[in-house]
Amino acid sequence: MKAGLHRTDSGGFECFFEYQKPSSMSFIEVVVTIGSVLLLLVTLPFSLFWCFKVVQEYERAVIFRLGRLRKGGARGPGIFFVLPCLDSYCKVDLRTVSFDVPPQEALTKDSVTVTVDAVVYYRIQDPLNAVVKVTNYSNSTRLLAMTTLRNILGTRNLAEILSDREAISQAMQTSLDVATDPWGVKVERVEIKDVSLPQQLQRAMAAEAEASREARAKVIAAEGEMKASRALKEASDVINESPVALQLRYLQTLNNISAEKNSTIIFPLPIDLISYFLDKGVKEEKNSHFVL
Collapsing DSSP states into helix, strand and coil, what is residue 121? Predict the structure, then answer.
């Protein structure tokens, strides 16, 4: 019988009584326990080699006596005592363990087949639950990781899988951690290693990317030509306002030509000089017709 006070929501207290069934050993268990102790005393000191066990700092020992879990929780680190022929124990490693999730082929939300593999990091948080509540926590966690990865991939589009792997890893870690918590397993981290696409889809995506780059290059080239044409128009307007600027441009062109090592150099004549001779030839021709 257990009694106590319980605080209510209104701020008062109420008395409660709880009946606990005593955990008593059967007659056979008592006899076997006494026999094991007598055997331990008779075989001293050789029996001490089988009675004292040691677990490392990163290990815990879960002890069973005649099939029942001993009170006090898991033992360790250090030395602990077991009765020969009665007690059995199981060591549990508390260090972080990693395993590779085999490549899983799944159909995405937009009906694209992808193959994804991942890495899962986990550790034992509760050694008692890891031994008592699941047969093989390591194998169970592996199988659960594979099914969870396929389920999460089925809810995402291809673009999300390729660009937002961190969100997929976080969602997978949360789902695994909730499912493995009753087993005493804590999933610390999940990482997506690789995403494989079919060859035809890879070629289609490469062609799409190439076409996009070509279109962007053409747009940039057209914008450059437009800016260059505007600059040439402004320059021509400036030169047209000042004939001296045209002559300076002509001299600069001659300088550039002379700097090159060419065997033949063509000197362009100014347009004004050519027009002068053309006008003079036309006047002489008119005069000769008039004389005739």
Answer: strand
Angle ∠(203,208,213) on CA atoms, nearest 5: 125
Q: Which of the two residues, 124 and 266, has the higher pLDDT score?
A: 124
Token duo for residue 67: 């099939």
Paired tokens of 141 = 């966690």
Measured between alpha carbons, how far is residue 288 from residues 52, 166, 231 in Å?
139, 95, 49
Exposed / middle / buried, residue 48 (Cβ in 10 Å: 0-12, 13-18, 19+): exposed
CA dihedral sign, ordered 166, 171, 173, 174 = positive
CB 40 within 8 A of CB 83: yes
SS3 of residue 150 by DSSP? helix
Alpha carbon 164 to chain centroid distance? 7
Over residues 147-173, mean pLDDT? 88
pTM of the shown model: 0.61
> What's the pLDDT score for residue 45?
74
Tokens of 233: 């128009």
DSSP H helical segments within the chain, as ranges? Answer: 27-42, 48-51, 127-132, 137-153, 158-163, 165-180, 199-241, 243-259, 271-291
The single-letter DSSP state of residue 181 is: G
Contact status, residue 89 vs residue 50, Cβ threshold 8 Å: no
Q: Which amino acid is at 112?
A: V
Between CA 216 and CA 219, with CA 218 as vertex, the angle to 5 degrees is 65
Instruction: Tell me the mean pLDDT in the region 54-60.
Output: 89
**pLDDT, tens digit (0-9, with 9 covering 90-100), for 65-123:** 877 888 878 888 888 888 877 788 889 999 999 999 999 888 888 888 888 999 999 99
Quote the longest CA-to-CA distance of the chain.
160
> Are the CB atoms for 72 and 61 separated by under 8 Å?
no
For the residues 20-38, what does the mean pLDDT come to? 64
